Design the sequence.
């Protein structure tokens, strides 16, 4: 090493060899040669000692400085998202927080980072969330391994936050309970049960459009709140058999409570200091969340009491989940099916029934409403596609679709199955705006992921939105193109590159219910209105956030005008 014209070798047996005129290889020469060349060893020895200390200190300083600079450069590269080497080990981590500093900045930043990291590390990488490792994957092959593995049936600790409300409902249940209860609940979503819900979908959707009439020919308005209240009324009618009337009752406390609870979950998930229960439930946020949860539980409990009394009054007239019933007899109400299970098999307690009903409301209301929000936004933004969907409705319903706008459409399972183009539109919307951008699991044994071991007890995160928006699997990924879902094109699609309802054994139980309901809503809206946007916002400019589920940063708005009455060709 050369310092100020003095050469110093950092090898133990050549430490004292210093000569400004010597060549760079002097210190490797035999000792005798050096003694001959340098006859004043004592003086040189002192100088060498001092220099060595300085050198050592300077070396340490240089090393530290180098680490700081390289860390800062890497950090800036990640934060500013320039090119970044695709090696996850190089993702700078900080003591105590790990990589969590990347998520600072709110729910919009979190979603953005997840998508960007998915691009930088297109397979799987380890993300340090404080002291916890989360293995994040954006690879369909790895996702398949995760979702199909019996080692990842368990959900990770984030889901614990939902347990005060949803208890042992399917979303939050530990694997041992989930295994049994999933089988028990499955019949409530079989074709016979689904058929019985169709009338409720149509009735509630007409109430929604009647309320939307107040926006006719006006400026753009926020569509989500109309859709959400429809979803809530519909899910409460089919899960609990009650008419909540959130759509007609402006000040619905139930709706308010659900919003507050969901906002509380999100805030806790992004604030690691609120993770311990003994901290969270002492904060104003935690206390208010429990207040709202208690209110929601009271409502479900009172419905349980009421329904039980009804069942006793009705005696043995209950219909089993797979028995056909008259269309006018109303929906097969989930809660009643669950009572039958608890009576017949003594499997479910009242608390478990409540957990399942509450879970269905959480799982089914906001998810459907958010998706529908984007379906209507996409239709308003793509007039040609809206026209095609409308023409399909004309083909199915004939003149009836056009002329009878105050009444329900005659929706049947067969009619819903014929809405093939509309289904592509909904699927493409769910690709671009997937309600659950990420899902988590926990490994209960070591898991091999693409040749690397994910240790037992780790969290695994599936970056669903990262895959859905990846150019690798979806060329021209941000283009809204429903024909990606034509049977011919979709057959060529990489398996596990499309997961709006998750996949594997813990996939969405209500996927068919949701699709039927969304088709009914879309048909009811489009038969009556033409949707438009004053200024179309390209998909890439719709600002999104991860707020428990996917949400828009700014409310999405559309304009509606009455569809001109005309006769189908
Ligand atoms: C567009 C609407 C919907 C979407 C996008 C959706 C999506 C999902 C996703 C991604 C999961 C997996 C969650 C996870 O692993 O963390 C899930 C689970 C679930 N969903 Fe849905 N869902 C929708 C509508 C519904 C509806 C309407 C219901 C019921 C009426 C429902 C009931 C459930 C249930 C019970 C689970 C838990 C399944 C289990 O763990 O066994 N979902 N859903």
Sequence:
């Amino acid at each position: 090493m050369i310092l100020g014209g003095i050469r110093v070798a950092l090898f133990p047996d050549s430490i004292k060899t210093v000569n400004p005129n010597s060549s760079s290889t002097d210190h490797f020469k035999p000792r005798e040669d050096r003694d001959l060349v340098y006859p004043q060893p004592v003086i040189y020895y002192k100088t060498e000692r001092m220099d060595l200390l300085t050198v050592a200190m300077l070396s340490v300083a240089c090393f530290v400085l180098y680490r700081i600079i390289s860390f800062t450069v890497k950090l800036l590269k990640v934060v500013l998202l320039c090119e970044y080497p695709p090696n996850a080990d190089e993702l700078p981590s900080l003591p105590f927080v790990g990589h969590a500093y990347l998520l600072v900045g709110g729910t919009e930043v979190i979603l953005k980072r997840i998508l960007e990291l998915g691009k930088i590390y297109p397979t799987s990488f380890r993300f340090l969330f404080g002291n916890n490792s989360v293995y994040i994957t954006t690879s369909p092959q790895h996702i398949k391994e995760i979702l199909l593995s019996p080692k990842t049936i368990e959900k990770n600790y984030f889901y614990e936050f939902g347990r005060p409300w949803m208890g042992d409902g399917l979303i939050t249940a530990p694997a041992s309970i989930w295994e049994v209860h999933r089988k028990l609940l499955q019949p409530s979503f079989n074709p016979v049960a689904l058929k019985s819900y169709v009338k409720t979908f149509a009735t509630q959707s007409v109430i929604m459009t009647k309320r939307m009439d107040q926006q006719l020919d006006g400026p753009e308005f926020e569509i989500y709140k109309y859709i959400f209240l429809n979803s809530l009324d519909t899910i409460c009618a089919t899960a609990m058999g009650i008419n909540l009337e959130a759509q007609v009752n402006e000040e619905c406390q139930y709706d308010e409570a659900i919003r507050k609870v969901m906002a509380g979950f999100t805030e806790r998930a992004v604030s690691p200091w609120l993770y311990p229960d003994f901290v969270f439930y002492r904060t104003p946020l935690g206390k208010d969340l429990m207040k709202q949860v208690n209110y929601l539980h009271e409502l479900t409990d009172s419905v349980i009491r009421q329904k039980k009394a009804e069942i006793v009054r009705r005696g043995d007239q209950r219909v089993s989940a797979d028995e056909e019933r008259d269309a006018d007899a109303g929906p097969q109400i989930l809660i009643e099916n669950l009572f039958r299970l608890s009576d017949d098999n003594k499997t479910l307690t009242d608390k478990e029934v409540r957990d399942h009903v509450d879970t269905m409301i959480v799982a089914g209301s906001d998810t459907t409403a958010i998706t529908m929000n984007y379906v209507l936004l996409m239709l308003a933004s793509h007039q040609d596609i809206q026209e095609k969907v409308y023409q399909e409705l004309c083909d199915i319903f004939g003149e009836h679709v056009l002329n009878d706008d105050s009444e329900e459409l005659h929706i049947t399972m067969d009619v819903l199955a014929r809405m093939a183009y509309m289904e592509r539109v909904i699927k493409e919307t769910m690709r671009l705006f997937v309600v659950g951008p990420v899902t988590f699991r926990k490994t209960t044994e070591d898991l091999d992921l693409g040749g690397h071991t994910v240790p037992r007890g780790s969290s695994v995160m599936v970056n669903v939105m990262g895959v859905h928006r990846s150019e690798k699997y979806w060329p021209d990924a941000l283009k809204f193109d429903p024909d990606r879902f034509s049977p011919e094109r979709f057959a060529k699609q990489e398996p596990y590159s499309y997961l709006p309802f998750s996949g594997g054994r813990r996939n969405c139980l209500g996927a068919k219910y949701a699709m039927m309901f969304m088709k009914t809503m879309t048909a009811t809206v489009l038969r009556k209105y033409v949707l438009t946007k004053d200024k179309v916002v390209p998909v890439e400019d719709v600002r999104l956030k991860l707020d428990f589920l996917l949400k828009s940063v700014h409310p999405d708005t559309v304009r509606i005008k009455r569809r001109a009455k005309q006769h189908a060709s």
In short: The two ends are 89 Å apart (CA to CA). Residues 170-171, 182, 359-360, 363-364, 367-368, 371, 435-436, 439, 500-502, 506, 508-510, 513-514 surround protoporphyrin IX containing FE (CB under 6 Å). Residues 2-77 form one domain.
